[in-house]
Write a structure and sequence with these properties.
single chain; alpha/beta
Length: 352
């Protein structure tokens, strides 16, 4: 059984590789070669007020590479006020770590092949998926990016988009002024392009070709009226997006055919905004994610406003993880990366 660290995963998974893995995944999915089980989130009370235990799972099978993968995240979460907005925060354990993992199984033998943390892989998968969507929906000449957010996922958005568009300028806004300045300086130094922090979200939207929302906000961080003709807008969280964007954009990708998430909770103990979360009504111009990825549907005009919201990114989510984690396992084996543990530690001689 192969044990990998986040550093091991980073050595074998580049952003361009991940974009290619997902392109193939959706091509295989269009031929019926993918299985995904619905994402579930279970919420339990915690001893601390306004804090909750959350277990998140998703899984999928990709027989074209002989892998079945289960993702498990076990978190203690709480709501944190930051300025005038609130954020969902995962509380680290006593040693400053978080619990999130991917289990890779063989569909040929049934055995557990590998274990890896989901941190670096998740960031890369999200960045690659939104890049793939932007490749279909953003104008080919897009160069200017507006980014709302300055955290882990925000960086992944820039790295992904640079795989499909010649991004030359980035304007960043987040509610923490010091953090966005440091983030902009780090990106400019590492990427060699102009990255500038701005004082308001509206400034990040102005004259951008692509706008990416990548926050952990519990309420909208933008106004639909800010979306300009020709812009492509994306959002990694449901609540950060102004729901009116669904009506105001010309081309919107939705995921209403697939039941992509189910929340389980005890009474009123789950955070209320999680219980109440609803996606806006599907507009007449909406495109189902299934058809969007299968047919690689693109924008039809230079002034068209396009939207790829969080719900669309959840299409075949468990399968996406299976494809990427399966690729990582195969590459690590090929390159001799990781630590081998005795297979018998993870098997039994009693028939369950």
């Amino acid at each position: 059984m192969l044990l990998l660290t986040n550093e091991d995963v980073e050595r074998v998974l580049t952003m361009p590789d991940c974009v290619d893995v997902l392109r193939r995944f959706f091509a295989e999915e269009s031929q019926g070669q993918v299985l995904t089980r619905q994402r579930t989130e279970s919420w339990l009370p915690h001893l601390t007020t306004d804090t909750f235990y959350q277990c998140k799972t998703m899984e999928g099978g990709v027989p074209y590479i002989g892998k079945y993968v289960i993702r498990i995240d076990s978190n203690v979460t709480r709501k944190k006020q930051q300025g005038q907005s609130s954020r969902i925060e995962h509380v680290p354990s006593g040693n400053g770590s978080w619990m999130g993992m991917l289990l890779v199984f063989s569909t040929e033998t049934g055995e557990l092949l590998g274990w890896m943390p989901d941190g670096y892989l998740q960031r890369t998968r999200v960045g690659a998926l939104y890049a793939l969507a932007a490749d279909y929906l953003a104008r080919p000449d897009s160069e200017n990016l507006g980014l709302i957010g300055s955290g882990w996922q925000a960086g992944g958005q820039i790295l992904g988009l640079r795989c499909v568009r010649n991004i030359k300028k980035v304007r960043i806004y987040s509610s923490n002024a010091d953090r966005r300045s440091r983030f902009a300086d780090e990106l400019q130094a590492s990427l060699g392009i102009e990255v500038r922090p701005v004082a308001g979200a509206r400034e990040a939207f102005a004259k951008a070709d692509i706008v990416a929302l990548a926050t952990n906000a519990n309420e909208k961080v933008m106004e639909s009226a800010w979306i300009e003709p020709g812009q492509h807008l994306s959002s990694v969280r449901v609540l950060e997006l102004d729901p009116r964007s669904y009506e105001d954009c010309d081309r919107v990708v939705v995921n209403r055919v697939e039941p992509w998430m189910q929340n389980y909770y005890l009474g009123e103990l789950c955070p209320q905004d999680i219980k109440d979360a609803r996606v806006p009504p599907s507009p007449p111009s909406a495109i189902e994610a299934r058809e969007f990825f299968r047919q690689r549907i693109k924008r039809t005009g230079a002034r068209e406003k396009t939207l790829f919201p969080n719900e669309a990114s959840n299409y075949q989510l468990g399968g996406q993880f299976a494809a990427v984690a399966g690729f990582v396992f195969d590459q690590a084996r090929k390159k001799g990366i990781g630590r081998d543990l005795p297979a018998e530690w993870f098997a039994q001689t009693l028939l369950p």
